[in-house]
Amino acid sequence: MKKLTDENIETQAKFTLKNNLSAVSKVNADDLNLLLDKFELVSYIKNTEIIKEGDIAEYFYFIYKGIIKIYFFINDKIVIDRFEEEGAFFGGNFTHLTNQPGTHVYESIDDVLLLRIKYEDLEKVCKESHDIERLYRISMEMFHRSYSTNLSKFKSLSSEERYYELIKHHTNIINRVPLKDIANYLNMTPETLSRIRAKYDKK
Amino acid sequence: MNKRIPKITDKDPKLHLKETLLQAAIISENNIQKILNIFEVVKYDKNQQIIKEGTVAEYMYFISKGLVRVYYFKTGKEIIDWFAEEGSFIGNLYSHITTKPGFDIYEAMEDVTLLRVEFSDLEKLYKESHEIESLSRKIMEQYYITYVERVHNLRALPSDEKYHLFLKYYAPIINRIPLKFVAIYLGITAETLSRIRAK
What pLDDT is attached to residue B155? Predict the structure, then answer.
C-alpha cells in the first residue's frame, strides 16, 4: 500500500465522494467537511489483498478508481462473494463490531485508488453530527438492501441468468474482471461461461 | 385474531421490544418510551400473510411471538429467503427504499404477535432524535453481519454441509420449522433432505 501525497488526486477523490454522499441525504457543509477531513487517499497495485482473511477491519473504504473482488475459502477453494466497483463502499463486513477475525478477503483486481476512514473516526463524527449519523443510517439501509437482493438473486436465478444481469447492469465488471473470476462468481466453469458468452454474442 | 395465546396485555410485547433495543445500544429511557409509543400490537393467525406480494412497504414489524417465513415465487417456484423468529425486525426494506412494490411474502408460520410501526413515524423520530437514529443504524449493522454470514454459508456448499449449517444457525427454532420448508430453504428435494437427515 502507498499513501499518496498527490493532493490533487486526493482533492478530486474527495470531491467525488462528497457528491455521492450529498445524493444520499442532505448534510450541512461543515459536517460533511468534518467527515471528509477524516478520509485519506491510499493506493494499491493490482492483485493486492487490502483486507486479509483473519483481519479485524480497521477502516471503511470508498472506491475512487478500480474494482475490488471479495472472496472467501471453502475447503481451500476460493468462492467469490461479489465485486465492488467505483463509487462503492466496503469495509470488512463489520468485523470491528463482532471482534471476530474476518472470513473474507478484499483484493484489488486492477490498480486502485481508495479513500479510507478509521471506524473509530467514523463513529466519532456520527456522534458529533446528527446529519452524518443520518447519512450513515440511510447508507446502511442501502447496503443491506443491495446485499439482500444479491442473496435473493443467487438463490433464485440460474448462473446463466446471473450472467445476463451482469451484462445488463455491470458492464464495468464484464469488461474489466478476468473471465475466470466472473466464472467463479457465477458458480460455473470457465468453459461453461465461454459457451454462454458465445451464445450471447450471436444474439 | 388469535384465540389460543392467553390474552396478553400490550405491555408485554413492548417490554420485549425494549429489551431488544437496549441490547443494541445504550439509549435514554425517554427515547425508549418515544419509540415504544409509536408501535402498536397486531396479531395474525397461522398461515396468514402479514405482507403480501406486490405491496409497497408501509410498516416495520418486531416479532414478539411466533415464527414468520419470508419467501417469494420465481417462475411459479417458491423460494424461501429466511425464517424470522422472536426478537427479529422484519419489513420490506427494498420496497421501503425504492417505494416500489415488493416481491417478498411475509407469512405467519404459527400464530404470531407483532409490534408494528409506520416507516414514516419512524423517520420522524429519527429526525427528532440523534440517539434514536444512531440506534437504528447500529441495528442495521447487526443485520448486515447476519446477511453476510448467511450468504457465506449458503454459497457453494454441498447440500449436506448446508443442512448442518442450517441446523446450527436455526438451532433454537429448528423443531418449529416443517421439513418441507427446510427443503425449500436449502433448495433441495424432500427426498434428498431425508437422505441427509438419515445420515
Answer: 66
Predicted pLDDT of residue B115? 97
Which of the four pLDDT bands, split at 50, 70 and 90, describes residue B156? low
At residue B6, the pLDDT reads: 44
Report the C-alpha gap between A25 and A29 in whole angstroms.
12
- Determine the residue type at B4: R
This prediction's pTM: 0.86
The closest alpha carbon to A140, from A107, A98, A93, A100, belongs to: A93
Superfamily of A2-129 according to CATH: Jelly Rolls (2.60.120.10)
Considering only alpha carbons, which residue of chain B is nearest residue A93? B145
* Min distance B113 CA to chain A CA atoms (Å): 25
- The pLDDT, as a whole number, for residue A4 is 58
Q: How does DSSP classify residue B8?
A: -
Do residue B141 and residue A140 have CB atoms under 8 angstroms apart?
yes
Which of B69, B62, B50 has its CA nearest to residue B116?
A: B62
Domain ranges (residues) in chain A: 2-129
What's the sign of the alpha-carbon dihedral A90, A92, A93, A94? negative
CB contact under 8 A, B74 and A134: no
B33 touches chain A (CB under 8 A): no
The residue whose grid cell reads 411471538 is B65
Residues of A in contact with B81 (CB under 8 A): 148, 151-152, 155
N-terminal to C-terminal alpha carbon distance within chain B: 41
**B76 Cβ neighbours under 8 A, 6+ residues apart:** none
Question: Which tens digits make up the pLDDT trace of A36-79?
Answer: 999 999 999 999 999 999 998 899 999 999 999 999 988 788 98
The superfamily CATH assigns to domain B11-129 is Jelly Rolls (2.60.120.10)
Model confidence at B14: pLDDT above 70: yes
Mean pLDDT of A175-199: 91
Minimum CA–CA partner of B141 in chain A: A140
